[in-house]
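dumping this here so i dont lose it again. seq + smiles for adenosine-5'-triphosphate
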Amino acid sequence: MTVVDLENVTFAYGEQPAVRDVSLTVAEGDFLGLIGPNGSGKTTLLQLMLGLRSPDSGSIELFGEPVSSFEDGERIGYVSQQATSGGGSMPVTVREVVTMGRFAHAGHGRLTNTDHAAVDDALETVGITDLADRQINALSGGQRQRAYIARALASEADLLALDEPTVGVDAESRDAFYQLLESLNADGITIILIEHDIGVVTDRASRIACINTDLYHHGDTESFVESDALTEAYGASGQVVHHHH
Ligand SMILES: Nc1ncnc2c1ncn2[C@@H]1O[C@H](COP(=O)(O)OP(=O)(O)OP(=O)(O)O)[C@@H](O)[C@H]1O
């Protein structure tokens, strides 16, 4: 089954396109690494895929339907850069954040036992049961990311989209975090991951999309490693791996 299908998608903020004529598909069960230099359109492309931005031209389907027909958050867990960087000062607990993932299921009624069980399961899966009653803003970066993943799991998302989720996370937590992603992927959740560390992407992802406004590569990780796409997309600057902060 095709989860995301982009055909000839172009998007510009002003005159200059951020994403140009990109066509690609993400299949159920894929672990897609989305890479490219700074400002190359990765976040924009991800937001287009999720229906958070409308393309200037081209078409986008999610789960075989036009992306515009999807309700906010339906079937999708999106962990944005802002979500994990600790922005927002809402005094909410981890349990409340994860419970928000159930609102689509609970409708306007009260949360059922099934909802509470789904929240407990999600907290358990990502290993933060002991943090459930802490304020979300009092967590470390890595713990906060797990909380947002748990929210996606509680919503029974089929697709998890993450935008540089390990910025500011120490190496050990980062490794554990990517192991969690791999095990979720093995359980059948489709993953799209923006990550600036190319070594991490080629180690973990089954497929790679490499962009710099234009799409330079889309295919399995092995064919990417053997191709010239990396040097072509990153240009002569030689800036292959960059670090934020
Ligand atoms: N809201 C916006 N308004 C205007 N221009 C924008 C906006 N967001 C992004 N851009 C521009 O569009 C281009 C693509 O940005 P985008 O954030 O998609 O790239 P990115 O690959 O995710 O970057 P990074 O790796 O630095 O996070 C950049 O040139 C950026 O300056």
